[in-house]
């Protein structure tokens, strides 16, 4: 496949398309037989803990585990008979691919997805299980997209952009309609932002039906591409750093999304990795909800005190997806425990005489800490030859407990 750049006719930055409320209404009518209407329930514990009347829109409960099904279903339902026969193609490393493959199978439309070579194995297998053709090309999503655009021209396949095709935006906007139906007196809606498709559709739906509702977009700190583009007023390309919210790491946001969202977003907020990890942990523990990093950013913004103005307000946070890799989930839980002060690392220099390390572990136990890991080194220690540096990873109750433990150890050990 050649080097020539093939533009996507549906997503032209020179003439962006704005999605209207009637497009979203049409989408709601078209997808209701094929897409779940997800619950939007109040979180009693988190509302109490953070002083916010907090509701969660649980999009991770869709069949393929994310909100992407709405746009995919609507985009597929809008194809001409010829397009349905030939099939569609998309470049995606995750949820858009899953949604398209599943609904393609339901509607009997052939689907080809081009995934970057690093795409999670689980998602590749899932797409194949829905009968789709999966091609692994390129070491990033941009390369995968170039390949998909060439194939779309070669094989006469309709290309469906996962966060910028107008039908996709209209489909995602149906979340906004459901939120106002389920929680009519909402004050603020928090929306995760990657390419911008969901916030564009949701903002149009909310602001049309209830202009007083505030719409806040939440991005990962390592890739604030929508914040920058929204401020600049045009699409710009950001460097995407690695993030737990990998679904939001979109270097270049959608031009239609940006044009549609213009003037409708009240605030953009970025969150750091520690608060995303803590958010994933809180949702598992208190809500019994397993969400991916992208789905956890809205709660992360509340946890990290980025939105003090929400106190006492009725807030809906969209939990956009739950397709988190099992190994990443393990890491996120550990990172969350560390941020929460429930997993700590201590280094202490103790006597290398018999009983030195035993005494240390006894003191930690008496202070209520539970040792997970312990290792010691003699060769690289600069104090006397009869000392040993011990590194301990221990479980603690909370931040206060950590301070108590530290105080106890400092009373006995100087280093």
TrEMBL record:
Pfam families, sorted: PALP
Co-factor(s): pyridoxal 5'-phosphate
InterPro entries, per the entry: ACT_dom, ACT_ThrD-II-like, Ser/Thr_Dehydratase, Thr_deHydtase_catblc, TrpB-like_PALP, TrpB-like_PALP_sf
GO MF: L-serine ammonia-lyase activity; threonine deaminase activity
Domain ACT per the UniProt entry, residue ranges: 345-415
Example GO BP: L-serine catabolic process
Source superkingdom: Eukaryota
PROSITE patterns for this protein: ACT
Keywords: Lyase, Pyridoxal phosphate
UniProt similarity note: Belongs to the serine/threonine dehydratase family.
Name of this chain's protein: L-serine deaminase
